[in-house]
Amino acid sequence: MAFKVLQSALQQGSAARLGSLALPNRKVIDTPNFIAISSRGTVPHVTPDILSKHATFRGAYMALEDSSTLPIDTYAAHIEALSPDIAIAPADLFHTSVRPPAKKLVRMADRTEEWVARFLKPSRREKLRESGTAVFAPILGVPHHVQWQYLKQLSEDDIDALVGLAIYDVDLLPEVLEHYKPLVPLARLSLHTVTSPQQILEQIAAGVDICAVPFLNTTSDAGIAFDFTFPPPQGPHEHPLALGTSMWSPEHVTSVTPLAPGCQCYACTKHHRAYIHHLLNANEMLAWTLLQMHNHHVVGEFFAGIRAAFAASPTRFEELSEQFVATYEAEIPLGTGSRPRARGYHFKGIANQPKINESKWANFNDGNADAEGAVRPSDATDESAQAARSATETPVVPDESSVELDKKGFASKEEGGALVK
Question: Where is the composition biased (Basic and acidic residues) (predicted)?
Fold first, then answer.
């Protein structure tokens, strides 16, 4: 199990590099590359059989969460039981504030230093090594002067147990690479949120090897099909090109073209825009499955283009990155339709979570405002109101109590002229 740097651009004034990450019983991951984001262990809308047949990405990130306090030994026991290919050592991260006070930052660094030391105790290192689990150490999103002692511990005491770094703030990478040389050869996994392909290019230029791309799932949910390539198409272009196309747009009703020109993914080779548009409007789950397959394929080809350009020349990668920024819009377009109905893996394990899905059914009268000419049943007490009520359509949900219904003969039948209950 090892990460190997194949080509570096440090001499060119950039920290970007080509590499390969070899994990036991897995195909080699060529870097730069990306991993999919899962929710509760599942890539949204994509079943395991589809993943095995059509997925081109080599890994998926899963957050191991629990609503109760999770002791370090318990976390380590879960890691030993699950035997993931990569495990990130526990860290004290932001939860309620993106700008915690200075004292909180110091406590975060101190706790992370203590937790990583306990997680990587000598007896556990050997178990992790035997199970084939690669350990990545977290680099917190706090200033360097706050966590310098923790970083020093990683570079001096824990370096033999580490395969990579999990970076929560890519802006810290230059200082880390400059001051802690033993950490430079390790693989770098970015958990710093990106919202566009342009930001991915910035992270790669900063020295990131593997990116987590959370905007993939949200873009598919919005009904957007990616339409960008690296290298970018040759110009000139009158206007910046869109990074994606909304499949909700009525212009696709009769379009039999693929989601993106030249795309060889399953969705583009087997189906067309009109079909995806129809599925979205019918709220068919297959629509989002096909969009996920397409969008993950496009991002995979995007990274393949980056590796090819860098292999040709680090300077070539920098030139094409500048062209990409100039060619495409800076933001992914917003969807114009409704998102899919949230399922179990969309929800977080938090208390009092607000309702996400809109109700598909409701009373004919909503109880707040009466329909024109209608009488609100709950307020009907006099004879005229009762008469008006009897003339209205029987509601799906009864508006009266069981006692009132029983008085009026609900669920009763007549036999031989007698009323039977």
Answer: 404-421
Q: 0.85 exceeded by the pTM?
A: no
Contact at 8 Å (CB) between 80 and 127?
yes
Tell me the pLDDT tens digit for each residue of 163-206.
Answer: 999 999 999 999 999 999 999 999 999 999 999 999 999 999 99
Query: CA-to-CA distance for 378 and 31, rounded, in angstroms?
Result: 66
Rounded to an integer, what distance in angstroms lies between the CA atom of residue 14 and that of residue 319? 12
CATH number belonging to the domain at 1-31+64-213, selected among 3.90.650.10, 3.50.50.60, 3.40.50.720, 3.20.20.105: 3.20.20.105
36-74: per-residue pLDDT in tens?
A: 999 878 899 998 898 888 888 888 998 877 667 788 999
Q: Parse the chain into domains and list their residue ranges.
A: 1-31+64-213, 218-338
CA torsion angle for 168, 170, 174, 176 (degrees, to 10)? Answer: 10
Q: Of 153, 180, 198, which is closest to residue 306 (Cα–Cα)?
A: 198
Q: Residue 82 CA to chain centroid, in angstroms?
A: 21
